[in-house]
Amino acid sequence: MELTVHAEEPEALRDAAFGWLTDGIREYDKQADLRMMPEDVEVSVEGFSRAVDAVPWRSRGGPWGRVHVSPQGSFDVLYNPYTADALPWLERHLSEQPESASVRIGHVAESGAVEAPDTSFCVSFEEEVPGYVKLGFHVGVPALVAPFTTIAEHEGLLAAVRWACDRYNMVFGHVSYRRSGGATELEGQLRGRPSDPVLNMPYWRTLLRGYSWLMVIPDSIAEVLGGSEALRSTGAFASVAVLPNNAVLLQATPTFQQYDREAVKAVHRVVRDVLVQGELRDPPSVPGPPTDLVVVPTPGAGTGAGRWSSLRTE
Protein backbone atom coordinates (compact mmCIF):
# COMPACT_ATOMS: atom_id res chain seq x y z
CA MET A 1 0.00 0.00 0.00
CA GLU A 2 1.32 3.44 -0.92
CA LEU A 3 -0.27 6.68 0.27
CA THR A 4 0.85 10.02 -1.19
CA VAL A 5 0.74 13.06 1.10
CA HIS A 6 1.00 16.59 -0.34
CA ALA A 7 2.00 19.64 1.70
CA GLU A 8 3.71 22.94 0.98
CA GLU A 9 5.46 23.04 4.36
CA PRO A 10 8.41 20.66 4.87
CA GLU A 11 7.44 20.35 8.54
CA ALA A 12 4.09 18.86 7.57
CA LEU A 13 5.80 16.22 5.42
CA ARG A 14 8.21 15.38 8.22
CA ASP A 15 5.36 15.08 10.71
CA ALA A 16 3.47 12.74 8.36
CA ALA A 17 6.55 10.56 7.87
CA PHE A 18 7.36 10.43 11.59
CA GLY A 19 3.74 9.78 12.54
CA TRP A 20 3.49 6.92 10.05
CA LEU A 21 6.62 5.23 11.40
CA THR A 22 5.42 5.50 15.00
CA ASP A 23 1.68 5.89 15.59
CA GLY A 24 0.78 4.41 12.20
CA ILE A 25 2.64 1.23 13.07
CA ARG A 26 0.85 1.01 16.40
CA GLU A 27 -2.50 1.29 14.64
CA TYR A 28 -1.56 -1.72 12.52
CA ASP A 29 -0.15 -3.82 15.35
CA LYS A 30 -0.87 -2.87 18.94
CA GLN A 31 1.94 -5.18 20.07
CA ALA A 32 4.40 -3.06 18.09
CA ASP A 33 3.90 -0.16 20.51
CA LEU A 34 7.29 1.39 21.27
CA ARG A 35 6.57 1.04 24.97
CA MET A 36 6.63 -2.74 24.50
CA MET A 37 9.94 -2.79 22.62
CA PRO A 38 13.16 -3.99 24.30
CA GLU A 39 14.83 -1.47 26.60
CA ASP A 40 18.47 -0.78 27.36
CA VAL A 41 19.68 -1.76 23.90
CA GLU A 42 22.51 0.08 22.22
CA VAL A 43 21.47 3.01 20.03
CA SER A 44 23.90 4.92 17.81
CA VAL A 45 23.66 8.71 17.64
CA GLU A 46 24.96 8.60 14.06
CA GLY A 47 23.39 5.27 13.12
CA PHE A 48 25.01 1.88 12.72
CA SER A 49 26.48 1.03 9.32
CA ARG A 50 25.15 -2.54 9.52
CA ALA A 51 21.78 -3.96 10.43
CA VAL A 52 21.42 -4.73 14.12
CA ASP A 53 18.94 -6.97 15.88
CA ALA A 54 17.84 -5.60 19.24
CA VAL A 55 16.67 -8.85 20.80
CA PRO A 56 17.87 -9.22 24.40
CA TRP A 57 16.92 -12.47 26.11
CA ARG A 58 14.20 -10.84 28.20
CA SER A 59 12.25 -9.84 25.08
CA ARG A 60 11.39 -13.45 24.32
CA GLY A 61 7.76 -13.69 23.36
CA GLY A 62 7.63 -9.99 22.53
CA PRO A 63 8.13 -7.64 19.58
CA TRP A 64 11.37 -6.33 18.12
CA GLY A 65 12.05 -3.81 15.39
CA ARG A 66 14.75 -2.30 13.19
CA VAL A 67 14.72 1.12 11.52
CA HIS A 68 16.91 2.20 8.63
CA VAL A 69 17.45 5.50 6.82
CA SER A 70 18.88 6.14 3.34
CA PRO A 71 19.98 9.80 3.10
CA GLN A 72 19.55 11.70 -0.17
CA GLY A 73 22.58 11.79 -2.46
CA SER A 74 24.34 8.96 -0.69
CA PHE A 75 24.74 5.21 -0.96
CA ASP A 76 24.90 4.95 2.82
CA VAL A 77 22.25 3.08 4.78
CA LEU A 78 22.10 3.78 8.51
CA TYR A 79 20.47 1.47 11.05
CA ASN A 80 19.25 1.52 14.63
CA PRO A 81 17.05 -0.70 16.77
CA TYR A 82 13.43 0.45 16.76
CA THR A 83 13.19 1.77 20.30
CA ALA A 84 12.10 5.01 21.96
CA ASP A 85 15.75 6.00 22.38
CA ALA A 86 16.23 5.92 18.59
CA LEU A 87 13.33 8.30 17.83
CA PRO A 88 15.36 11.55 18.09
CA TRP A 89 17.83 10.08 15.59
CA LEU A 90 15.01 9.09 13.25
CA GLU A 91 13.23 12.44 13.56
CA ARG A 92 16.45 14.34 12.81
CA HIS A 93 16.99 12.38 9.60
CA LEU A 94 13.37 12.78 8.54
CA SER A 95 13.67 16.56 8.90
CA GLU A 96 16.36 16.35 6.19
CA GLN A 97 13.96 14.45 3.89
CA PRO A 98 16.03 11.33 3.22
CA GLU A 99 15.51 9.22 0.14
CA SER A 100 13.71 6.71 2.33
CA ALA A 101 13.30 5.40 5.85
CA SER A 102 11.67 2.19 6.95
CA VAL A 103 10.79 0.12 9.97
CA ARG A 104 10.55 -3.64 10.00
CA ILE A 105 8.68 -5.30 12.82
CA GLY A 106 9.06 -8.87 13.98
CA HIS A 107 8.43 -10.99 17.05
CA VAL A 108 10.63 -13.21 19.17
CA ALA A 109 9.37 -16.68 19.98
CA GLU A 110 9.50 -18.01 23.55
CA SER A 111 12.35 -20.21 22.34
CA GLY A 112 14.35 -17.10 21.47
CA ALA A 113 14.07 -17.62 17.73
CA VAL A 114 13.59 -14.37 15.79
CA GLU A 115 10.47 -14.39 13.66
CA ALA A 116 10.75 -11.91 10.81
CA PRO A 117 7.49 -11.63 8.86
CA ASP A 118 7.45 -9.93 5.49
CA THR A 119 5.97 -6.75 6.97
CA SER A 120 7.42 -3.25 6.97
CA PHE A 121 6.45 0.41 7.05
CA CYS A 122 8.35 2.95 4.99
CA VAL A 123 8.41 6.57 3.87
CA SER A 124 10.08 8.02 0.79
CA PHE A 125 10.80 11.51 -0.52
CA GLU A 126 11.42 12.34 -4.17
CA GLU A 127 14.19 14.93 -4.51
CA GLU A 128 12.92 15.94 -7.96
CA VAL A 129 9.38 16.52 -6.69
CA PRO A 130 9.37 18.48 -3.41
CA GLY A 131 6.14 18.84 -1.52
CA TYR A 132 5.31 15.14 -1.30
CA VAL A 133 6.02 12.15 0.91
CA LYS A 134 4.90 8.60 0.23
CA LEU A 135 3.81 6.45 3.15
CA GLY A 136 4.24 2.77 2.39
CA PHE A 137 3.15 -0.51 3.91
CA HIS A 138 4.43 -3.90 2.72
CA VAL A 139 2.93 -7.24 3.67
CA GLY A 140 3.25 -10.67 2.10
CA VAL A 141 0.24 -11.79 0.08
CA PRO A 142 -0.04 -15.06 2.06
CA ALA A 143 -0.81 -13.05 5.19
CA LEU A 144 -3.78 -11.45 3.43
CA VAL A 145 -5.23 -14.74 2.23
CA ALA A 146 -4.23 -17.36 4.83
CA PRO A 147 -7.23 -18.55 6.91
CA PHE A 148 -5.56 -17.89 10.27
CA THR A 149 -4.22 -14.40 9.52
CA THR A 150 -6.46 -12.77 6.94
CA ILE A 151 -8.96 -11.13 9.32
CA ALA A 152 -6.27 -9.62 11.58
CA GLU A 153 -4.15 -8.49 8.62
CA HIS A 154 -7.05 -6.74 6.92
CA GLU A 155 -8.14 -5.09 10.15
CA GLY A 156 -4.60 -3.88 10.86
CA LEU A 157 -4.01 -2.59 7.34
CA LEU A 158 -7.33 -0.75 7.16
CA ALA A 159 -6.84 0.73 10.64
CA ALA A 160 -3.42 2.13 9.71
CA VAL A 161 -4.68 3.50 6.38
CA ARG A 162 -7.70 5.18 7.94
CA TRP A 163 -5.52 6.62 10.71
CA ALA A 164 -3.22 8.27 8.12
CA CYS A 165 -6.03 9.39 5.82
CA ASP A 166 -7.85 11.08 8.70
CA ARG A 167 -4.76 13.13 9.62
CA TYR A 168 -2.86 14.07 6.49
CA ASN A 169 -3.59 15.65 3.12
CA MET A 170 -3.82 12.37 1.23
CA VAL A 171 -3.99 12.92 -2.53
CA PHE A 172 -3.51 9.40 -3.89
CA GLY A 173 -3.24 5.82 -2.69
CA HIS A 174 -2.95 2.38 -4.27
CA VAL A 175 -2.08 -1.26 -3.65
CA SER A 176 0.37 -2.98 -5.99
CA TYR A 177 2.72 -5.94 -5.93
CA ARG A 178 6.16 -5.20 -4.48
CA ARG A 179 7.84 -6.05 -7.81
CA SER A 180 6.26 -2.90 -9.25
CA GLY A 181 9.06 -0.91 -7.59
CA GLY A 182 6.92 2.04 -6.54
CA ALA A 183 4.88 2.22 -9.74
CA THR A 184 1.22 1.32 -9.86
CA GLU A 185 0.24 -1.85 -11.67
CA LEU A 186 -1.05 0.32 -14.52
CA GLU A 187 2.18 2.34 -14.80
CA GLY A 188 4.06 -0.94 -14.91
CA GLN A 189 2.19 -1.87 -18.11
CA LEU A 190 3.07 1.36 -19.96
CA ARG A 191 6.06 2.57 -21.95
CA GLY A 192 8.11 5.73 -21.53
CA ARG A 193 7.02 8.82 -19.63
CA PRO A 194 3.51 7.62 -18.66
CA SER A 195 5.16 4.76 -16.75
CA ASP A 196 7.16 7.06 -14.47
CA PRO A 197 5.47 7.51 -11.06
CA VAL A 198 7.67 10.50 -10.19
CA LEU A 199 6.65 12.42 -13.32
CA ASN A 200 3.00 11.48 -12.86
CA MET A 201 2.80 12.46 -9.19
CA PRO A 202 2.33 16.26 -9.63
CA TYR A 203 -0.72 15.66 -11.88
CA TRP A 204 -2.74 14.09 -9.08
CA ARG A 205 -5.49 16.71 -9.42
CA THR A 206 -6.37 15.65 -12.98
CA LEU A 207 -5.30 12.02 -13.50
CA LEU A 208 -4.97 8.77 -11.60
CA ARG A 209 -1.67 6.90 -11.71
CA GLY A 210 -3.62 3.68 -11.37
CA TYR A 211 -6.44 1.87 -9.59
CA SER A 212 -6.56 -1.02 -7.16
CA TRP A 213 -8.39 -2.95 -4.47
CA LEU A 214 -7.86 -0.12 -1.96
CA MET A 215 -7.28 3.38 -3.32
CA VAL A 216 -7.45 7.09 -2.53
CA ILE A 217 -8.59 9.54 -5.18
CA PRO A 218 -8.51 13.34 -4.72
CA ASP A 219 -11.68 15.40 -4.51
CA SER A 220 -11.10 16.97 -7.95
CA ILE A 221 -11.18 13.56 -9.64
CA ALA A 222 -14.03 12.32 -7.45
CA GLU A 223 -16.02 15.32 -8.64
CA VAL A 224 -15.33 14.45 -12.30
CA LEU A 225 -16.62 10.93 -11.55
CA GLY A 226 -19.84 12.33 -10.07
CA GLY A 227 -18.94 12.51 -6.38
CA SER A 228 -19.11 9.97 -3.58
CA GLU A 229 -22.79 9.12 -4.06
CA ALA A 230 -22.26 8.40 -7.75
CA LEU A 231 -19.28 6.20 -6.89
CA ARG A 232 -21.41 4.25 -4.41
CA SER A 233 -24.15 3.78 -6.99
CA THR A 234 -21.76 2.11 -9.45
CA GLY A 235 -21.71 -1.04 -7.32
CA ALA A 236 -17.96 -1.36 -7.93
CA PHE A 237 -17.01 -0.56 -4.33
CA ALA A 238 -17.81 -2.23 -1.03
CA SER A 239 -16.86 0.95 0.81
CA VAL A 240 -16.75 4.64 -0.19
CA ALA A 241 -15.50 7.00 2.54
CA VAL A 242 -15.06 10.76 2.23
CA LEU A 243 -11.90 11.90 4.02
CA PRO A 244 -11.39 15.14 5.98
CA ASN A 245 -9.64 16.76 2.97
CA ASN A 246 -12.60 15.65 0.75
CA ALA A 247 -10.54 13.00 -0.99
CA VAL A 248 -12.27 9.61 -1.21
CA LEU A 249 -11.06 6.26 0.11
CA LEU A 250 -12.39 3.44 -2.08
CA GLN A 251 -12.37 -0.25 -1.20
CA ALA A 252 -13.47 -2.53 -4.02
CA THR A 253 -14.17 -5.71 -2.04
CA PRO A 254 -14.25 -6.55 1.68
CA THR A 255 -11.05 -8.60 1.41
CA PHE A 256 -8.09 -8.63 -0.94
CA GLN A 257 -8.65 -12.22 -2.07
CA GLN A 258 -12.12 -11.24 -3.33
CA TYR A 259 -10.59 -8.70 -5.72
CA ASP A 260 -10.85 -11.05 -8.68
CA ARG A 261 -11.27 -10.58 -12.43
CA GLU A 262 -14.80 -9.20 -12.35
CA ALA A 263 -14.06 -6.86 -9.45
CA VAL A 264 -10.96 -5.49 -11.23
CA LYS A 265 -12.96 -4.90 -14.40
CA ALA A 266 -15.75 -3.18 -12.46
CA VAL A 267 -13.33 -0.70 -10.87
CA HIS A 268 -11.66 -0.07 -14.21
CA ARG A 269 -14.97 0.76 -15.86
CA VAL A 270 -15.58 3.48 -13.27
CA VAL A 271 -12.18 5.22 -13.43
CA ARG A 272 -10.90 4.48 -16.96
CA ASP A 273 -11.54 8.02 -18.25
CA VAL A 274 -9.29 9.62 -15.62
CA LEU A 275 -6.36 7.20 -15.80
CA VAL A 276 -2.87 8.00 -17.06
CA GLN A 277 -2.70 6.98 -20.72
CA GLY A 278 0.20 5.56 -22.73
CA GLU A 279 1.47 2.89 -25.07
CA LEU A 280 1.39 -0.59 -23.61
CA ARG A 281 4.59 -2.55 -23.12
CA ASP A 282 5.11 -5.67 -25.20
CA PRO A 283 4.32 -8.90 -23.34
CA PRO A 284 7.48 -10.38 -21.75
CA SER A 285 9.09 -13.21 -23.73
CA VAL A 286 9.38 -15.23 -20.54
CA PRO A 287 6.19 -15.44 -18.46
CA GLY A 288 6.54 -13.78 -15.08
CA PRO A 289 4.32 -13.48 -12.01
CA PRO A 290 0.64 -13.04 -12.85
CA THR A 291 -0.59 -9.46 -12.93
CA ASP A 292 -4.16 -9.64 -11.74
CA LEU A 293 -4.72 -6.11 -10.45
CA VAL A 294 -5.25 -4.36 -13.80
CA VAL A 295 -6.88 -5.01 -17.15
CA VAL A 296 -5.16 -4.58 -20.50
CA PRO A 297 -6.49 -4.82 -24.06
CA THR A 298 -6.58 -8.29 -25.54
CA PRO A 299 -4.00 -8.38 -28.39
CA GLY A 300 -5.58 -7.04 -31.56
CA ALA A 301 -8.79 -6.05 -29.82
CA GLY A 302 -8.17 -2.30 -29.51
CA THR A 303 -9.21 -0.42 -26.39
CA GLY A 304 -12.99 -0.79 -26.43
CA ALA A 305 -14.45 -1.16 -22.97
CA GLY A 306 -16.12 -4.44 -23.85
CA ARG A 307 -12.91 -6.02 -25.09
CA TRP A 308 -10.72 -5.74 -22.03
CA SER A 309 -9.53 -8.74 -20.06
CA SER A 310 -7.38 -9.21 -16.99
CA LEU A 311 -3.94 -10.82 -17.02
CA ARG A 312 -4.87 -13.19 -14.23
CA THR A 313 -3.66 -16.71 -14.97
CA GLU A 314 -6.14 -19.48 -14.28
How would you describe this protein?
Residues 281-314 are annotated as: Disordered. This is DUF3396 domain-containing protein. β6 and β7 form a beta hairpin. By secondary structure, the protein is α+β, with helices and mostly antiparallel strands. α1 (10-28) runs antiparallel to α2 (87-95) and α1 (10-28) runs antiparallel to α4. The protein starts with a strand and ends with a strand. The radius of gyration is 20 Å and the shape is globular. Helices cover 24% and strands 21% of the residues. It has two domains: 1-168, no CATH class; 174-314, no CATH class. Strands 1, 2, 3, 4, 5, 6, 7 and 8 form an eight-stranded antiparallel sheet that branches.
Topology:
Blueprint: E1 2-6, H1 10-28, E2 63-70, E3 78-81, H2 87-95, E4 100-108, E5 114-115, E6 119-124, E7 132-139, H3 141-145, H4 150-165, E8 170-174, H5 197-200, E9 214-217, H6 219-224, H7 228-233, E10 239-242, E11 248-251, H8 261-271, E12 295-297, E13 308-310
Antiparallel strand pairs: 1-7, 1-8, 2-3, 2-4, 4-5, 4-6, 6-7, 9-11, 10-11, 12-13
List keywords for this structure.
314 residues, single chain, disordered C terminus, 2 domains, 8-stranded antiparallel β-sheet, alpha+beta, 8 helices, 3-stranded antiparallel β-sheet, 13 strands
The tally of beta strands, per DSSP, is 13
Shape label:
globular
Segments where pLDDT lies below 50 for 5+ residues?
Answer: 300-314
Content-based structural category = alpha+beta
- Provide the residue-averaged pLDDT: 87
SSE sequence, one letter per element: EHEEHEEEEHHEHEHHEEHEE
Distance between the termini: 25 Å
Number of contiguous helices: 8
